[in-house]
Specification:
By secondary structure, the protein is of the alpha+beta class. It has ten helices and 20 strands. Strands 4-3-2-1-5-6 form a six-stranded mixed β-sheet, sandwiched between helices. β5, α5 and β6 form a beta-alpha-beta unit. The chain is elongated. The two termini are 43 Å apart.
């Protein structure tokens, strides 16, 4: 069923800022085709729809399935309800507005559509725009931050409810069972869904960062890794915790202390103006000095927002500087094949004076022991 109201308003200022960039880059308009970017700039949440944006105009290209939804969610835009192919709609609206040079999203246009646009508009008519909207989305406004905070709270309440019964509430149940309950409780709490398929990993499978929960049963004295997040009003949260069913396996306990210190150092390094590489380095150095460098193979974190993975990225390959208003995960991990793994993850707001942890679940070693 189509949504009946637009929960997150979309300031026209977002479109105006992008329109100013068009002028600087010598484009008459931009074709926005990535669904999260269409939503960010229009408020519209339907599928199979593009946004054509000019200096002082914007047209939502959609079809009759979304006529009423477009009126409700993107009331301040013109709507083109297409009856034919999307290509015809793009070319027709572009012609109506005298578009001679069209910017297209490098990361969200198919080769097929690009070639068809070249044929219809001319090879010199297209400008490849890489990351224009993604860069803008990296800095969250007040409404976006409020939605992310709500998504975090929903995810945290679900986790607390799942683990409130102690070890006895988990022992004897399968990974898939507890991961499914976590998602159910998030929906009960107001989420439209999970940010990604929730992970519940018991024992050795926790050494796989993207383990898919299966029928492995949770036993007493085991470590259980949970990685989960909620979507609320279109915005994501992303958290990871490791709990222990009664006692702490010695090897996991040792690496838990290292990961916890690495996360502390990573969070402390988050600050507007800092290099994402230096933030990654601050956490990675702790793990490397403990002798587990090869067992931490992924980046320290990533941005969250309308997508679970978006700009900026915290890794040794990342470029640029962190900007105030970005929300990033800080999630170092150590993974021991055949033994298990530990990852601790929080969502952190980038501010001028440092990083503000938005999530509030405990993470000390003893706090994670379920009695």
């Amino acid at each position: 069923m189509a949504p009946t109201r637009q929960v997150i308003s979309v300031p026209a200022g977002r479109r105006r800022r992008l329109a100013r960039r068009l002028g600087r880059q010598g484009a008459d308009a931009m074709l926005v085709s990535a669904p999260p970017n269409v939503r960010y700039l229009s408020g519209f949440r339907g599928e199979d729809s593009y946004l054509l944006l000019g200096p002082r105009w914007a047209v939502l290209l959609t079809d009759s399935r979304f006529t009423e939804q477009a009126r409700q969610e993107a009331a301040d835009l013109d709507h083109h309800i297409r009856t034919g192919a999307m290509l015809e709609a793009i070319v027709g609206v572009a012609a109506e507005h005298g578009v001679k040079r069209l910017a297209v999203e490098a990361e969200a246009i198919t080769l097929e559509l690009y070639r068809k646009l070249e044929t219809a508009l001319g090879k010199r008519a297209l400008l490849v725009a890489e990351g224009w909207v993604a860069e803008a989305r990296a800095t969250k406004d007040a409404e976006e931050l409020a939605a992310i905070r709500r998504a975090i709270r929903v995810a945290e309440r679900a986790f607390r409810a799942l683990t409130a019964g102690g070890a006895g509430a988990l022992v004897g149940r399968s990974e898939a069972d507890v991961a499914g309950e976590l998602e159910y409780r998030m929906r009960q709490g107001g989420a439209s869904g999970a940010s990604f398929p929730s992970i519940g990993a018991v024992g050795a499978p926790a050494a796989l960062p993207h383990h898919r929960p299966g029928d492995t049963k949770i036993g007493p004295g085991q470590a259980v890794l949970f990685d989960w997040g909620a979507v609320v009003e279109g915005y994501c949260s992303d958290l990871t915790r490791v709990v222990f069913t009664g006692t702490i396996p010695p090897q996991i306990g040792r690496i838990y202390a290292v990961v916890l210190e690495a996360q502390k150092q990573g969070v402390s390094a988050v600050r507007a103006g800092r290099s994402p590489r230096s933030v990654d380095r601050a956490a990675r150095a702790v793990i490397e000095s403990a002798g587990f460098g090869p067992q931490f193979g992924h980046g320290l974190g990533h941005g969250i927002g309308l997508e679970i993975h978006e700009a900026p990225t915290l890794s040794h390959r990342a470029r640029g500087r962190l900007k105030r208003g970005a929300v990033v995960t800080v999630e170092p991990g150590i993974y021991l094949p055949g033994v298990g793994g530990v990852r601790i993850e929080d969502d952190v707001l980038v501010e001028t004076g440092g990083g503000r942890v938005l999530s509030s679940l405990p993470k000390s070693l003893q706090a994670m022991v379920l009695k």
